[in-house]
Write a sequence for this structure.
């Protein structure tokens, strides 16, 4: 099993990638998303765009955890979405299998949760910094050709950095 991670500058790019992944047969058990949530009363680069439910500054992250029509229409992926407070980052929203990994690894932060998925510690720290800076991670766990397909879809959707860890990629 390989873990492919794409780093997106915007929520819209990540949504585009998830829509395409779902259209090509990737399931909710293979696709995860992680993004920094807004802090009440603040609106900085790390906050998601105004008007997006669950990510606007001042909204309770535990209410309405949908990312607008794009991802909200994807059904089951958001059934696993949860708001977490990650040390060093603050509030985040995680959806998919990574959400469960992070809820069990909150003390180790995002890098610790990614380490549990086979991501090297150094890269996990970089991904944690990316989220801290307001970027969105899309994570796909798949084998061989499927991991390569996921990487290509992420690149086409605008991921600035795509890497595959473990397995064949």
């Amino acid at each position: 099993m390989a873990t492919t991670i794409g780093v997106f500058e915007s929520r819209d790019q990540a949504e585009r990638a998830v829509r395409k992944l779902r259209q090509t047969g990737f399931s909710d058990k293979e696709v995860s998303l992680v993004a920094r949530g807004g802090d009440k009363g603040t609106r900085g680069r790390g906050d998601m765009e105004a008007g997006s439910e669950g990510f606007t500054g001042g909204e309770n992250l535990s209410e309405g955890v949908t990312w607008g029509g794009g991802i909200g229409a994807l059904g089951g992926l958001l059934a696993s979405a949860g708001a977490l407070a990650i040390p060093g980052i603050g509030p985040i929203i995680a959806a998919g299998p990574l959400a469960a990994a992070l809820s069990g690894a909150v003390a180790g932060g995002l890098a610790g949760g990614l380490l549990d998925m086979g991501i090297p510690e150094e890269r996990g720290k970089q991904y944690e910094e990316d989220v801290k800076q307001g970027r969105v991670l899309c994570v796909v766990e798949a084998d061989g050709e499927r991991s390569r397909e996921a990487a290509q879809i992420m690149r086409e959707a605008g991921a600035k950095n795509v890497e595959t860890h473990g397995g064949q990629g």
The chain is about 35% helix and 20% strand. The first strand starts at residue 2 and ends at 8. Strands lie at 2-8, 31-36, 82-86, 90-95, 136-142, 161-165. The chain has one domain: 2-165.
